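User: Structure please.
Assistant: Input sequence and predicted structure:
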Amino acid sequence: MNDAARTNRGAMVILGCFLALGLIIGGWVLGAEIKAVRLADRYVSVRGLAERTVKSDLAIWPISYTETGDDLPSLYSKTEADKKIILQFLAKQSIQPPEIEMGTVTVTDNQANFFPVNRRPLYRYFVQQQITVRTSRVDEVAAAAQKTIGLLQQGIVLRNMGLMYKFNGLNSIKPDMITEATRNARAAAQRFAMDSGSSVGTIRQATQGYFSILPANSGAADAEGGGYGGDADSSMMKTVRVVTDVQYYLDK
C-alpha cells in the first residue's frame, strides 16, 4: 500500500471517529432534552401558609366634639372651653403633648343651606373640632378610651370616637414569614410526592404571595389570602398572614 492510500485510510478512520463521537454527543443531548421535556411536565403546585400574631404598635384616637347654637362668638367660647377640658382629661391619662394633634375648627351655617320651612334645624350654627391622639403607647390609649364617660358627664358632645390600631412592623417579620411559608409549601409537596411515588426536585416557579393583616382570631386560615380585614383597625392584636405559591418538579 502506497503512502497516498495509507493517508486516505487514516483520514477515513479519523473522520469515522468524529462521526461516531458526534452521534454519541448528539444522542446524549437529545436524551437530555427529552428528559427535560418530560420533567417539565412533572411538577406539583402547592401553597404555603405562615401566620404571626402581633400587637399593634400605633394607636390613632380621633376625638371630635361639637357645639350648636345661634350666637357664633359664644359658640367659639364653648368650643375653647371644651378643648381645655378634653386636654386636661388626656393629661390625666398620661397622654403627652407631642402625642396630641389639634385639628381645625369647622363651622356650618345651617341658614346658608336650603331646608324646607317645616324641617329647618333648631340651631343656626354647628361647630366641630377634632383632637387626635397618635402614639405608640397603645395600652395607655386603650385604657383612656374607656374613661370618656367623664367627658360626657361634663356636657361635651363627642363624635367619631373610633379608636384605630395599626401595625407598622411588617418589614421586620417579612423574611422569616416568607421562609416559613416556603418551608410549609415544600412539606406539602413532599406529602404529595410520597403518595405518587415521586420525590420533590427543584423549584419550577414561585411567587412570594402577599401579606394580609387581620384581626386576631379572625377564623380559619384563608388559603386565598386577602387584604386588610374590615375591622382589623379595631383590634389591638392582629394576625399577619402570607400565602406563597410554589411549583416543584417531581423526580422519580
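The chain has two domains: 41-55+169-251, 58-166.
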